[in-house]
Design a protein that fits this description.
By secondary structure, this protein is an alpha/beta fold. It has helices spanning 4-14, 28-31, 50-53, 68-77, 88-96, 107-111, 166-174, 189-198, 213-221, 232-239, 295-298, 302-321; strands at 19-23, 38-42, 61-62, 81-82, 151-154, 180-183, 204-206, 225-229, 244-247, 268-271. 32% of the residues lie in helices and 12% in strands. The strands form three sheets. A six-stranded parallel sheet has the order 7-6-5-8-9-10, sandwiched between helices. A two-stranded parallel sheet has the order 1-2. It has a two-stranded parallel sheet with strand order 3-4. Helix 7 crosses helix 8 and helix 7 (166-174) packs across helix 12.
Length: 323
């Protein structure tokens, strides 16, 4: 998701033939992207695709991974290339020494350093996500009540220490003014069912595991506001310029992965527990809190999250009704 602004600018400002190499599980992000001409995928290693890539005479390689795998590809293809400052040392210092030497710059803007020599300019249009027509969800098939507005909540995450616990999520939901749609994959369904058992209202719909990622994106696009942990659905919300309350646990926005919506700062609210000496404990996340107390999530202000989402949703519906 975060590479899509560079992809768009490469295509629109250079009018080039654009190839993307990615892991097979991420291919869907580019297959429906009109700015991409060819998608090459790997499952385990670059040996799967190097013979094919060597038959193509690339003029330039933009490396937005900057790891051993991408270095091998660049060395093998022997074409001009450029990368971006990954800042692993600075991230290590922040996680382990709590010394922040990171620039106040989103990772998307750092990606653009990789195309600086091509004289490309960030167009400021933010992220892209293209939903196939057959993946659009008719809200009436879920419940007609949703057509008057609802709040989507992405309840999952790749790591447990990035996920707002159910006991904190339930009071958030009980204080929201609009109907609620819970989004996530099959693994999140257990959490969704637990939420449904605890909430004190009937207009909450657990859709975890029932829809594809493209369909979940459609539900986010049609929502009035989104509440999300630091996860992929948060970036999808940003791609559609949806008002979003992002909830941060062991990771922090300063890593440069917060919702990227240039020109729309009013659409993003960050919920986090400040001044914890243990935070951030990782640039990614853990299965469980390494110091056991999990204060970065257990001390989240439920009313702040709910009231922020209510305000964002109210403004969004008001502005769209006036158009």
């Amino acid at each position: 998701m975060l590479t899509t602004p560079v992809v768009r600018v490469l295509k629109t400002q250079l009018d080039c033939e654009l190839h993307v190499l990615t892991k097979e599980k991420f291919a869907f992000l580019y297959e429906h992207n009109p700015h991409v001409d060819h998608v090459h995928t790997i499952q385990k290693g670059v040996d799967e695709v190097l013979p094919e890539l060597k038959t193509i005479d690339f003029d330039f390689i933009v490396d937005l991974q900057k790891n051993l795998r991408s270095s091998r590809i660049k060395n093998t293809l022997d074409a001009p290339s450029a990368s971006f400052p990954k800042l692993n040392r600075q991230k290590w210092m922040l996680v382990n020494l709590k010394i922040n030497r990171l620039p106040e710059m989103h990772v998307v803007d750092r990606y653009f350093i990789a195309v600086r020599d091509l004289e490309l300019v960030n167009d400021g249009k933010g992220l892209d996500y293209f939903i196939p027509e057959d993946a659009e969800v008719d809200l009436a098939t879920v419940d007609p009540i949703l057509k008057d507005g609802y709040i989507a909540i992405a309840i999952g995450g790749q790591h447990n220490t990035k996920i707002l616990p159910v006991e904190k999520l339930v009071p958030v939901i009980d204080n929201l003014q609009l109907p609620v749609v819970l989004l996530g994959d099959q693994q999140d369904d257990i959490r969704g069912k637990e939420v449904m058992e605890r909430v004190q209202r009937k207009d909450v719909f657990n859709l975890c595991g029932q829809y594809s990622l493209d369909q979940s994106a459609s539900l986010i696009r049609q929502s009035a506001a989104v509440i999300s942990n630091d996860t992929g659905l948060m970036h999808i919300a940003a791609a559609f310029k949806k008002p979003v309350v992002s909830v941060w646990g062991n990771t922090i926005p300063e890593f440069g992965m917060y919702p990227y919506m240039p020109g729309y700062p009013e659409l993003s609210v960050v919920a986090e527990v400040k001044d914890l000496s243990c935070r951030p404990c990782s640039k990614l996340g853990y299965k469980r809190c390494p110091v056991r107390h999990f204060k970065c999530m257990r001390k989240q202000d439920e009313m702040f999250i709910a009231e922020s989402a209510n305000g964002l949703a109210e403004n969004y519906l008001r502005e769209n009704q006036s158009r």
